[in-house]
């Protein structure tokens, strides 16, 4: 039985929210700095990158390691604790607040995705929810953390997995969608 269409999407009605607009001087300036210093293969020192993030409003702890080819949407929506490692080609698409706790690691190609679209809306409205990664969290290579997810203390999202809901403390999650597969026991 074929389902009848109840409406259609009209992207001409889509409205960009002002805080996401590329029209402001701050957004344009950040776009250039992000492209020239962060999202490049040239290995600029982490200290320089941290100072630039702070200049643009990010809250950054000490001992943060920022590898090449990182893409950060809005640094003024970013909080990073102490001794955090962010690997190559990580994309922090932080339309709203992203908090990364101390001693956490985002491996190569990880994606923190705060935004989505309402597929039921004819305007395809943008929605955004914050992401929180507590202390000691490890987001594996090529993994995706979806809008609104909180990863509790020392949770692990295994390589190539997709977190669509919260991750419990001291557990390893794997798959798409990510499921709890084992306890994370850290040797003394």
UniProtKB/TrEMBL annotation:
Q: Which GO terms describe its molecular function?
A: O-acyltransferase activity
**Which terms are listed as keywords in the entry?**
Transferase
Nucleotide-binding as a keyword? no
The answer to keyword Iron-sulfur applying to this record is no
Q: Which GO terms describe its cellular component?
A: cytosol
SUPFAM superfamilies associated with the record: Trimeric LpxA-like enzymes
Q: Which InterPro entries match?
A: Hexapeptide_acetyltransf (IPR051159), Trimer_LpxA-like_sf (IPR011004)
The coiled-coil segments of this chain are none
Q: Which CDD domains match?
A: LbH_wcaF_like
* UniProt family annotation: Belongs to the transferase hexapeptide repeat family.
Protein name per Swiss-Prot or TrEMBL = Putative colanic acid biosynthesis acetyltransferase WcaF
| Source organism of the structure | Siphonobacter aquaeclarae
């Amino acid at each position: 039985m074929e389902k009848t269409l109840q409406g259609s999407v009209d992207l001409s009605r889509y409205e960009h929210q002002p805080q996401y607009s590329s029209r402001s001087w701050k957004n344009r300036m950040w776009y250039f700095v992000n492209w020239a210093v962060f999202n490049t293969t040239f290995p600029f020192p982490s200290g320089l990158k941290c100072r630039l993030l702070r200049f643009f409003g990010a809250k950054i702890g000490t001992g943060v390691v920022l590898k090449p080819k990182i893409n950060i949407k809005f640094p003024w929506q970013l909080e990073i604790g102490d001794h955090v490692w962010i690997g190559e080609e990580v994309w922090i698409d932080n339309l709203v607040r992203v908090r990364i706790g101390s001693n956490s690691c985002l491996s190569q190609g990880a994606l923190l995705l705060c935004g989505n679209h309402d597929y039921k809306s004819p305007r395809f409205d943008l929605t955004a929810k914050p992401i929180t990664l507590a202390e000691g969290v490890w987001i594996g290579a090529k993994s995706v953390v979806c809008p609104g997810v909180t990863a509790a203390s020392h949770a692990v999202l295994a390589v190539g997995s997709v977190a669509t809901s919260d991750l419990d403390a001291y557990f390893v999650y794997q798959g798409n969608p990510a499921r709890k597969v084992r306890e994370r026991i850290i040797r003394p």
